[in-house]
Amino acid sequence: MANIKSSKKRIRVTLRQTLRNRIIRSRTKTAMRKVVQACSANDAASAKNALVDAVRIIDKAATKGVYHKNNAARKKSKLTKLVNKIPA
After folding, report:
1. Domain assignments of the chain as residue spans, ordered by start
2. Is the pLDDT at 4 greater than 80, yes or no?
């Protein structure tokens, strides 16, 4: 354990940020999973709705600094391609 006051605070802040990032990452992965499941079921309507939700969640995560903007763009692109492959 650290002895310096600022080090102790950094440990507390890091733990809090880690927890927040874990929650946001989990939410993002769940949203992405819903899109993939809808695509594998060939359900175009629910896949598009899930894609809209996933894109919103991914953008929020990128804004908060959990994901780099290029990483977020890559995730969104991957999901969009998947949804666009579904026969209409």
Report:
1. 27-84
2. yes
